[in-house]
Amino acid sequence: MPCIPIKSNTSCRTDWLCVSGAIYEFDGYRFEIHSQFGPVRLTKNDNMHSYQPAKFFDAVERWQALSADEREKYKAEE
Protein backbone atom coordinates (compact mmCIF):
# COMPACT_ATOMS: atom_id res chain seq x y z
CA MET A 1 0.00 0.00 0.00
CA PRO A 2 1.74 3.18 -1.12
CA CYS A 3 1.59 6.20 1.13
CA ILE A 4 2.24 9.69 -0.19
CA PRO A 5 3.36 12.50 2.14
CA ILE A 6 1.33 15.67 1.71
CA LYS A 7 3.12 18.66 3.24
CA SER A 8 1.44 21.96 3.89
CA ASN A 9 3.24 25.17 2.95
CA THR A 10 1.70 26.90 5.96
CA SER A 11 2.52 24.47 8.76
CA CYS A 12 5.10 21.93 9.87
CA ARG A 13 2.50 19.17 9.78
CA THR A 14 2.72 16.37 7.25
CA ASP A 15 -0.38 14.43 6.32
CA TRP A 16 -0.27 11.10 4.55
CA LEU A 17 -2.46 9.82 1.73
CA CYS A 18 -2.50 6.03 1.73
CA VAL A 19 -4.20 4.12 -1.05
CA SER A 20 -4.79 0.44 -1.24
CA GLY A 21 -5.29 -1.75 -4.22
CA ALA A 22 -3.76 -4.76 -5.88
CA ILE A 23 -0.22 -4.19 -7.16
CA TYR A 24 0.77 -5.44 -10.59
CA GLU A 25 4.02 -5.74 -12.55
CA PHE A 26 3.67 -5.58 -16.33
CA ASP A 27 5.94 -4.53 -19.17
CA GLY A 28 8.63 -3.26 -16.79
CA TYR A 29 6.28 -1.15 -14.65
CA ARG A 30 5.06 -1.70 -11.09
CA PHE A 31 1.65 -0.13 -10.56
CA GLU A 32 -1.74 -0.31 -8.96
CA ILE A 33 -5.19 0.39 -10.31
CA HIS A 34 -7.11 2.30 -7.67
CA SER A 35 -10.89 2.63 -7.89
CA GLN A 36 -10.73 6.42 -7.44
CA PHE A 37 -7.25 7.39 -8.62
CA GLY A 38 -6.84 5.08 -11.62
CA PRO A 39 -3.42 3.69 -12.61
CA VAL A 40 -0.52 4.81 -10.42
CA ARG A 41 3.11 3.95 -11.20
CA LEU A 42 4.96 2.77 -8.09
CA THR A 43 8.58 2.71 -6.98
CA LYS A 44 10.28 -0.46 -5.72
CA ASN A 45 9.15 0.61 -2.20
CA ASP A 46 5.53 0.89 -3.40
CA ASN A 47 5.43 4.66 -3.15
CA MET A 48 3.94 6.76 -5.91
CA HIS A 49 6.60 7.37 -8.53
CA SER A 50 7.29 11.05 -9.15
CA TYR A 51 7.33 10.52 -12.94
CA GLN A 52 4.31 9.08 -14.76
CA PRO A 53 5.39 8.91 -18.45
CA ALA A 54 3.04 8.41 -21.39
CA LYS A 55 4.71 5.02 -22.04
CA PHE A 56 3.50 3.90 -18.62
CA PHE A 57 -0.11 4.65 -19.56
CA ASP A 58 0.41 2.85 -22.89
CA ALA A 59 1.55 -0.24 -20.94
CA VAL A 60 -1.49 0.02 -18.65
CA GLU A 61 -3.76 0.11 -21.71
CA ARG A 62 -2.11 -3.06 -23.06
CA TRP A 63 -2.53 -4.70 -19.64
CA GLN A 64 -6.21 -3.67 -19.49
CA ALA A 65 -6.80 -5.19 -22.94
CA LEU A 66 -5.89 -8.62 -21.52
CA SER A 67 -8.56 -10.94 -20.19
CA ALA A 68 -9.24 -10.85 -16.44
CA ASP A 69 -7.46 -14.20 -16.02
CA GLU A 70 -4.40 -12.94 -17.92
CA ARG A 71 -4.27 -9.72 -15.86
CA GLU A 72 -4.26 -11.75 -12.64
CA LYS A 73 -1.03 -13.46 -13.76
CA TYR A 74 0.73 -10.12 -13.39
CA LYS A 75 -0.46 -9.49 -9.82
CA ALA A 76 2.56 -8.90 -7.58
CA GLU A 77 0.67 -8.54 -4.31
CA GLU A 78 -2.65 -7.53 -2.84
Q: Please, could you describe this protein's structure?
A:
With 78 residues, the protein is of the alpha+beta class. The protein has one domain. The chain contains 2 helices and 6 strands. It has helices at residues 54-64, 68-72; strands at residues 3-7, 14-18, 23-26, 29-34, 38-41, 75-77. The N and C termini lie close together (8 Å).
Task: Summarize the topology.
Blueprint: E1 3-7, E2 14-18, E3 23-26, E4 29-34, E5 38-41, H1 54-64, H2 68-72, E6 75-77
Antiparallel strand pairs: 1-2, 3-4, 3-6, 4-5
Concise account of the structure shown:
The protein is built from two helices and six strands, in the order E-E-E-E-E-H-H-E. It has a four-stranded antiparallel β-sheet with strand order 5-4-3-6.
Question: Which features does this protein show?
Answer:
78 residues, alpha+beta, four-stranded antiparallel β-sheet, two-stranded antiparallel ribbon, 2 helices, elongated
Radius of gyration of CA atoms, rounded to a whole number: 14 Å
Total number of helices: 2
Structural shape? elongated
Runs with pLDDT <50, length 5+? none
* Strand residue content: 25-35%
How far the N terminus sits from the C terminus, by CA atoms, comes to 8 Å
Order of helices and strands: EEEEEHHE
Order of neighbouring strands in the sheet with most strands: 5-4-3-6
Quick check: average pLDDT? 83
Oligomer: single chain
For the largest beta-sheet, the strand count, sense and barrel status come to: 4 strands, antiparallel
Task: List how many beta strands DSSP finds.
Answer: 6
Give the tally of structural domains: 1
The percentage helix is 10-25%
Question: Which structural class fits the helix and strand makeup?
Answer: alpha+beta
